[in-house]
Amino acid sequence: MVAASRPTRWWERDTTPGLVLIAATIGSFLLLNAPAGETLHLTLESQIAGLSVGVGHGAHPVTPHLLINDGLMVIFFLYVGLELKRETIEGPLKNPREAALPIVGAIGGMAAPAVIYLSIAGHNPAYASGWAIPAATDIAFAVGVMSLLGPRVPAGLRLFLLALAIIDDLGAIVIIALFYSKHLVGWGLGGATLTFVIMLMANRAGVKALLPYWILGVVLWAFMIVSGVHATIAGVLTAMTVPMRKADGASPLAAAEHALKPWVQFAIMPIFALANAGVVLHGAGLDTLFHPIALGVAFGLLFGKPVGIAAAAWLASAVLRQRLPGNGLQIAGMAMLAGIGFTMSLFIGSLAFGAGDLATPVRFGVLGGSFASAMLGLLVLWAGCRRPSPRMHPTLGPEEALAEERGVLEDVDHHKAP
Fold first, then answer.
1. What is the full DSSP assignment across 366-413?
2. Which of 142, 159, 185, 417 has the maximum number of C-beta atoms within 10 A of its C-beta?
3. C-alpha dihedral sign at 118, 354, 364, 334
4. Residues 210/409, Cβ–Cβ less than 8 Å
């Protein structure tokens, strides 16, 4: 029998991943602006041993930057995909009526920032491809900032933000697949499709061990790189095939999600931030700070996100006659926190503009808009939360304790559920 509760360890607190990301961002800024900053930049963009991935016009040199963005981030998207599948099968998103509000809110929160960005930067065709940069929400940062208010935040509001951010990530994944995949290669797409079908068949055949899915997931990732579809999509597709439950009631998916969580939060995301979040101040003047891309991204996150989410959620609430999980100030503050784009926004920015000259205004916009959204959202949410609210149990609850010993390579026969 697993204990119902235990003291929360420091690395399990909601605020910890956000603090680690802030430290990584500061570290990236200091490193890039140090005397050896240019060397660091060149190292990140240097080809490794003459290696390339892809074929023909779609071939890219293998660099440390590519390994981080197309390699490590696949694991990040695998983790997001596992979380999304669990929420839609056994979590609050399984009920269409309950899921409607965060779904509609997320759609509004993706559309409004894109409109604002295009109204500011879309007049130049060279900048228009960045329209999706302010459309994403960083789950770790947004939930981490909200948790600073502790039990004052209503449990339903935190769950609403979490659901909205997960749906937002799904939207970003679809956007990446549809708009940021280039030079498609037929045989690569065919190999990826065949591999995915085999993984689905393994799930339907009752294969519950995780190792076969990880092996086939690597094969799927390799085909995705060749195909021209962004490699991170392989992580989401792999997550879709991971089995939810075994005959004894144990969850391979929950075990995998729990095992990946610390690696994603304390290794992959900080490494990504170190490689992508830093801004080189040398030569960056007001023209960079007020660049159309920087302004479009910052205003999209700071104004587009809260306006789009709040307006869409209130409209859906009125149409469905369903109560929102908080009062007006609480909804507004939560929607502002969703304007913390950071990891996903930086990632889409790297897909849209690469690591060239336009990367600097992208980073200015993402960091500025995310920081302002965090501060303003925290202030508004604090004003709307006067009294402590009942604490919500962790999303995985006792499932995390059961998954603790199973890990990412859980097999079929061991650790029967009590």
1. HHHHHHHHHHHHHHHHHHH--S--PPPPPSSTHHHHHHTTT-TT--SS
2. 142
3. positive
4. yes
pTM: 0.76
Q: How far apart are CA 336 and CA 44, in angstroms?
A: 33
- Bridge partners, residue 61, by sequence: 52
pLDDT, one tens digit per residue, over 320-360 is 888 888 888 999 999 999 999 888 898 899 888 877 788 88
Q: What does the pLDDT look like over 40-91, one tens digit per residue?
A: 778 877 888 777 766 555 566 788 888 888 888 899 889 988 988 888 888 7
Residue type, 30: L
CB atoms within 10 A of CB 147: 16
Supply the angle between the helices 342-353 and 139-146 in degrees, to the nearest 10.
150
Q: Which two tokens stand for residue 415?
A: 């650790």
HSE, side-chain direction, 13 A CA sphere, residue 201: 7
Q: Compute the distance between CA of residue 29 and CA of residue 40 in angstroms, rounded to an integer.
A: 12
d(CA 340, CA 140): 10
Residue 202: CB atoms within 10 Å = 17
Work out the number of other CB atoms within 10 angstroms of the CB of residue 32: 21
CA distance 105 to 168: 9
How far is the C-alpha of 60 from the C-alpha of 51, rounded, in Å?
9
Provide the Cα torsion 267, 34, 137, 85; round to 10°. Answer: -20
Distance CA 58, CA 362 (A): 24
